[in-house]
TrEMBL record:
It is a multi-pass membrane protein. Its main location: membrane. Keywords: Cell wall biogenesis/degradation, Glycosyltransferase, Membrane, Transferase, Transmembrane, Transmembrane helix. One of its GO terms (cellular component) is endomembrane system. The lineage of its organism: Eukaryota, Viridiplantae, Streptophyta, Embryophyta, Tracheophyta. It comes from Cicer arietinum. GO terms for biological process: cell wall organization; cellulose biosynthetic process. The active site is at D136, D460. This is Cellulose synthase-like protein H1 isoform X2. The chain crosses the membrane at residues 656-674, 686-705, 717-736. The keyword Transmembrane applies. It is found in: Endomembrane system.
Amino acid sequence: MANQSSLPLYEKIWAKHTFSRIMDSLTLLLLFLLLGYRISSHNNHTFPYFVAFLCESWFTITWITTMSTKWTPSHTKTFLDRLLLRVSESKLPPLDIFVTTADPALEPPIITVNTVLSLLALDYPANKLACYVSDDGCSPLTFYALVEATKFAKLWVPFCKKYNVQCRAPFRYFCDEEMANHDLPEFKQEWFKIKEEYEQLSGKIENAAQNSIPCELVGEFDIFSQTKPRNHSTIIKVIRENKGGLSNVVPHIIYISREKRPKHPHHHKAGAMNVLTRISGLMTNAPFILNVDCDMYVNNSKIALHALCILLDSKGEKEVAFAQCPQRFYDAVKDDAYGNQLVALPMYIGSGFAGLQGIIYAGTNCFHRRKVIYGVSPHHDIQNANKDHHGLANDKETMQKFGTSKGFVESVTHVLEGMTLDFYKSLDVKAARKVASCDYEYNTAWGKQVGWLYGSTSEDVLTGLKFHTKGWRSELCSTDPIAFMGCSPQDNLGQMAQHKRWSTGLLDIFLSKHCPIFGTLFGKLQLRECLAYIWITNWALRSVPEICYALLPAYCIITNSNFLPNQESSMWIPTTLFVIYNISNLFEHIKSGLSIRTWWNNQRMGRITTMNSCFLGFLTILLKHLRISDTPFEITKKEQPSSNENVGRFIFNESLIFLPGTTILMVQFIALFMSLLEWQPLVSNGYGVGEVFCSGYVVLCYLPFLKGLFGKGKYGIPLSTICKSTVLAFLFVHFCSKTIAN
């Protein structure tokens, strides 16, 4: 027993992607050779060569950060048996669960309800769990759905634990009739009974959603009668209170809609998370927090125990701030037509991050250490906590840091000293309302040094970066089966809007005082972790050289110049680079279990999202820093998988997000048409096969846009976008002609 108690609760397993390392190294070597050719070439004084040199220099720097991130991949292996030998079930630490939703139209309550039900059914003592649901839309429909779901949970939770159900989201579990096949007649009878109850629950929520007011606003719903989504007082409802005992199989369920006023900034999801942190600190004050988005249901019921293996490990307890679980999706469109399934990328880049100082915080599926959220640094032991925070409630400086609620400040003291509250005490709603008010954070450290950081729409990456800069590590908690499953955008509109929001927020981080470079120079962010953060925070900046490089072949055809070597002795460098890169990328996709078609869709969407979504993200940040406009926060639409035969086709609207791509496509058409009219392959300084091939390759990547030019309805590019793109394309041609004249 003594030996068992001294064994680590998890181990880090290092992967060796030898083939990828070789191919990545060859790619880097070829990039350096290409840059060397640009510098030594007698054509290096021409405009196309200069632009190509700048773009390829950027690609080389980006590739160095990519290689550094991928070089030492790892994943974790947890030992549940050792955990349960060391900590009995009754001694397991309490866990607070945060679920966030913001708009019942974009995030249907039936999806939120399934996520909550799966969390309530975790293989964890129910009297140690508390589920807090933040509703930033202040929707009576969401509250109604949760109230009804709580009634169903009294049947669902015991059923899951009795029969060890793996998938604990009922809408996924009951979609497979084969689940009812079981040797026990009792199971089959219960299965059909529970399914019928769930269908009734689903029907109630769907019927309520059809009405402008989902239910009579009386009794516990009366408070919603005088509320508006962006102008209302705090609403906190304890839907279910677990007071201990064997009969209490359903954990605490608390509904929260924080106060909002028109003239007060609410800081989007980061603000909601900070309110949840304070309210839960007053009510249950668990030392660990799990946060999930409203669409991420539990797919591995033992995930809390897996995460605790990392967080309670003797080494992890001192070094690990959070355990991040990967994101996977259950509603994949065939062949990943929109490139949003994130399968190959986490396998190589995600595990690469895990092999450094740690995986980034992805905003969902993450287990946090509460004291880290309160600003504690690594190796901050209990003696220091007692010394630094003795008499915390009377310390004016600390009150300014955490706010004026003495009850909350006392709860902070308990966390820093390693104490836990009585989980069965009455939940104090009155005190919780105070810390959820919109003016509570004024003149405090919330959003600056404490809690989720403000200042970026990618508050998750920013907050994780803060933890790493303090010297904390993080771990990738990869389990089999996968811990959480969620829904991905079901069309290109959602996917492109999502990438725009990500790239906007990430570039905002890079250009702020939280830049990872500063974290290495003045903090404890390790160098390679810094390079990895530079790679991810520069998605938006990457769009500028990619657009320039995509337009370069067309420019050369129109002006009869070249940017590629026109001699066979030198042409092998870019040709080999193109082939090696694509073979390497294809190999990674196939090794991840994906098809060649999926690989191509990911390649194509990589170009489309970078040159459209990320470019708009870049312009958004540019306008923000010029103080012309602020950064909007766009919620990604969550919806059930569609059986529509047109799934996979591109949908277009009048959004500016389609303007760059349509313009690029038209420019390529003009260039290719001119190449057919004036083909001059023997001119020494003119364009050649390479430029024509590159222009054709760009058209191939933009094939969905080409179909959109001739499509009808929502599958066609709007006439207004086509007209704007035509004007921009001819302006580009005019610029090219002016270059020739000069």
